User: Which sequence fits this backbone?
């Protein structure tokens, strides 16, 4: 089946296409009028029908071409098999050489990989060793610094405790002095209060004594005045009787009779 024979199915469509193109060149539609618009739409609808017919022919033609293509592939595969067999048999020693070369190259690559891996492991081991040494050195330095810091803190603590003890002793001394001073001031205040009380009591006693003396003198005067009057009433020679009457009045033995001091 040739390409020309396989495409004859399109001949009717090709003839129709020429006819449609020639007719289309002569047609004029006035789409600005309702009638012209209707005719134009009908004409386009007809052309779309021709295009649909072409698509149906294409599907049919392609199906035959696909069948033919599958038959061609099957025949080519059948004819290619002897060539593949000869090539495979002839290439076997060459493939073995290539395989040996490939294995040798792979061995070199593997050796290089192993060497690189070993070198990397050694590098990592050395790095780990140096890191451990650095860590140990750092830990040693840290321990030494910690010891120095601990001694410094201990010295600061001892100095602080010493200062606190000195401050406490000073405060205790000041407190004791304050207490002693307060006690002295209290005793002095008590002594002053006691002296003021004694002075006040002494003054009051002196005042009472002066009042007593004054009262006695006043009483003596009043009684003397009364005795003089009584003596005048009793008469001369009645001194003893006058004294007895005055004593009775002073002692309150005569009812309703008193001396107005």
Assistant:
């Amino acid at each position: 089946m040739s390409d020309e024979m396989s495409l004859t199915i399109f001949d009717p469509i090709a003839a129709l296409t020429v006819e449609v193109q020639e007719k289309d060149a002569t047609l004029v539609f006035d789409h600005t009028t309702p009638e012209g618009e209707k005719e134009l739409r009908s004409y386009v609808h007809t052309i779309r029908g021709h295009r649909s017919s072409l698509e149906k022919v294409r599907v049919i033609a392609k199906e035959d071409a696909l069948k033919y293509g599958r038959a061609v592939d099957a025949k080519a595969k059948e004819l290619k098999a002897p060539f593949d067999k000869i090539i495979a048999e002839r290439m076997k020693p060459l493939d073995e050489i290539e395989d040996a070369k490939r294995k040798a190259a792979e061995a070199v690559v593997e050796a290089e990989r192993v060497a690189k891996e070993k070198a990397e492991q050694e590098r990592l081991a050395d790095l780990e060793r140096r890191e451990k040494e650095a860590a140990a050195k750092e830990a040693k330095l840290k321990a030494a610094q910690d010891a120095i810091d601990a001694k410094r803190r201990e010295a600061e603590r001892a100095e602080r405790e010493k200062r606190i003890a000195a401050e406490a002793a000073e405060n205790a001394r000041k407190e004791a002095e304050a207490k002693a001073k307060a006690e002295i001031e209290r005793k002095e205040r008590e002594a002053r209060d006691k002296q003021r009380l004694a002075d006040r009591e002494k003054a009051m006693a002196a005042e009472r004594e002066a009042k007593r003396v004054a009262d006695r003198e006043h009483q003596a005067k009043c009684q003397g005045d009364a005795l003089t009057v009584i003596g005048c009433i009793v008469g001369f020679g009645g001194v003893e009787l006058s004294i007895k009457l005055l004593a009775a009045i002073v002692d309150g033995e005569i009812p309703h009779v008193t001396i107005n001091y």
Q: What stands out?
A: Confidence is low (pLDDT under 50) at residues 1-5. The chain has four helices and no strands.
